[in-house]
Amino acid sequence: MGKDSEQAGIRADDAYERGDYEAALAELRPLAEAGEEWAQYNLATLYDYGRGVKQNHEEAMRWYRAAADQGDAMAQNNVGTLYEAGDGVERDHEEAARWYRRAAEQGYDTAQFNLALMYDNGTGVAGDPVEAAGWYRLAAEQGHRGAQYNFGQIYDEGQGVAQDHVEAAKWYRLAADQGDPDAQCSLGVKLHEGLGVAQDDGEAMRWYRLAAEQGHGGALYNLGIIYERGQGVERDLVQARAWNLLAVKVGNENAAGQLEGLAGEMSFEQIAEAERLAEELRAKIDAAN
User: CATH number, domain at 44?
Assistant: First the structure.
């Protein structure tokens, strides 16, 4: 990169950081047209997300592809994403897998995760749980939280690897520590059942609550179960009903039946109190998200 290009790059970065995407676009376009790989990628993202310019997936694909052809792993992954979604190009899962692989082989964790999903679901490639496990592992070891959660699931179910609840709990915890609500709920289940970890209802409840605070339906339902049964906490039907009401609102299919069972044990006053509590909890969850 020449001195002029370097200065233009600095101005583009500064403009992007302060949210002046039109100025960033003006700096990036001539650099992208001159073949600067990083500028091609950044210009593509502006078109992809409609920042400083009308959203245009065809233009995004054009510039991602230009950078991808020069070997940019993030651009290669995003070319795959556009092919998978059919944005700016005809949907083609085989092409998506091909571009994910190119980026994954360069060590890009998001592409490794995306390629693992393709093998996991048999989309664009023949389904292969062993291949899926291998790519999930590579991404998970780089700290990709989605891959960590899915790798935990693979160990939980014994797909592509020997079933191992200790390993499952280990990977769930790594993803849970990064705030993944699915992993937080799954770790709660492990702690509740004592699978792969020491049984601990108090810890299970803590992880369920962290996931529930992000609106996770399974965690909301599981909190209701814990309060109904008094596992690790004092039995509290008001709390049980409140959490199940929230679970119903996010589409948990088991919670509706749980509410019917609870109603037979509760007074009208308790039911009304549970509904008030559910509204308070929902407001807190909505505010946090």
Answer: 1.25.40
